[in-house]
Recover the amino acids of this structure.
């Protein structure tokens, strides 16, 4: 008897992974190594495309995020159970035995059927409306303190944002510099108590409205106030508003937290059996590539285990080729005591 895992038909995948960032690619690698027929669908629009260097990923410290994606895909191509399609997923719907994944690449539309789905499309960033901010983003303006704080150590830094957690972000940033100004753009909230705590560390708060950031070919040189005054700064950390990119799963009715992130259990299961989430689509925490990759591996382990246990729960379902059918998606678990997602920094 062949020990090759059963596949209901050449057109039905064990897993469809939406998103080819570190979470999605890590999940894919672990799943194909478990001999799960896996398709990865990605629009090739990574949020960190403007970043030249990523940090904190062991053996790859300093590599560009795009190079990291390329290396991961090269590794995956060595496995026979892996497929990749570059397209934007437009909708995922329930069908008998699993899910239908609709995608579009230019004028070409495609549909794929999978027993399970991993959501790994991350978030989009809504930045303060400063006209030149994007020109320096990824070089001397950053959003991830844990990722880029070391490169800006000892600098004259700005913390720019319009949220209510700027004091917390500034406290973290003070590990890398003692010269920090928090710019609220007249919108962000810093309480009097938090401002006093920051002042004890030499961090000042500027509540004036901003006009723009300024700089030259060497990078950022200052923050221009609406009055025209320029406050000299050598680098900045911006606090975006993160919005999960999840419109394509609206029909599934997945549970979300108050911030719009998917509710998942400790292993990435969503509220719907057969649907999992990894990376920025779900859990709060540091927005680092290595963290997302670890979450992808964890989800892959849970998903593979769920499929394996479903076979034994359904005596009619085969484990190997030559048997007639696969375990039904309805026998897979959903979240148990989910923790609501919090806003991720």
């Amino acid at each position: 008897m062949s020990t090759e895992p059963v596949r209901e038909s050449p057109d039905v995948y064990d897993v469809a992974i939406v998103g080819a960032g570190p979470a999605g690619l890590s999940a894919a690698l672990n799943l194909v190594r478990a001999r799960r027929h896996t398709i990865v669908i990605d629009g090739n629009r990574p949020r960190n495309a403007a970043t030249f260097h990523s940090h904190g990923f062991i053996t790859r410290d300093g590599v560009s995020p795009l190079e990291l994606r390329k290396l991961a895909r090269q590794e995956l191509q060595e496995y026979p159970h892996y497929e990749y399609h570059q397209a934007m997923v437009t909708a995922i719907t329930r069908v008998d035995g699993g899910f239908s994944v609709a995608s579009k690449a230019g004028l070409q539309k495609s549909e794929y059927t999978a027993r399970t789905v991993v959501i790994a499309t991350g978030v989009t960033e809504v930045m303060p409306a400063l006209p030149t901010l994007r020109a320096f983003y990824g070089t001397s303006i950053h959003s991830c303190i844990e990722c880029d704080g070391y490169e800006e150590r000892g600098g004259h830094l700005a913390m720019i944002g319009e949220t209510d957690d700027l004091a917390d972000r500034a406290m973290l940033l003070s590990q890398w510099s003692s010269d920090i100004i928090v710019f609220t753009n007249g919108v962000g909230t810093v309480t009097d108590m938090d401002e006093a705590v920051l002042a004890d560390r030499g961090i000042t708060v500027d509540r004036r409205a901003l006009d723009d950031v300024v700089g030259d070919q060497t990078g950022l040189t200052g923050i221009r106030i609406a009055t025209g005054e320029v406050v000299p700064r050598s680098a900045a950390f911006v606090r975006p508003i993160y919005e999960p990119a999840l419109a394509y799963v609206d029909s599934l009715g997945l549970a979300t937290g108050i911030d719009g992130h998917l509710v998942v259990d400790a292993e990435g299961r969503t509220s719907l059996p057969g649907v999992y989430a990894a990376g920025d689509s779900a859990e709060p925490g540091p927005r680092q590539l290595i963290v997302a990759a670890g979450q992808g591996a964890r989800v892959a382990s849970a998903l593979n285990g769920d499929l394996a246990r479903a076979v034994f729960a359904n005596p009619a379902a085969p484990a190997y080729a030559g048997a007639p059918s696969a375990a039904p998606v309805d026998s897979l678990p959903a979240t148990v005591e989910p923790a609501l997602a919090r806003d991720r920094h």
Q: What stands out?
A: Residues 153 and 176 are 5 Å apart (CA to CA).
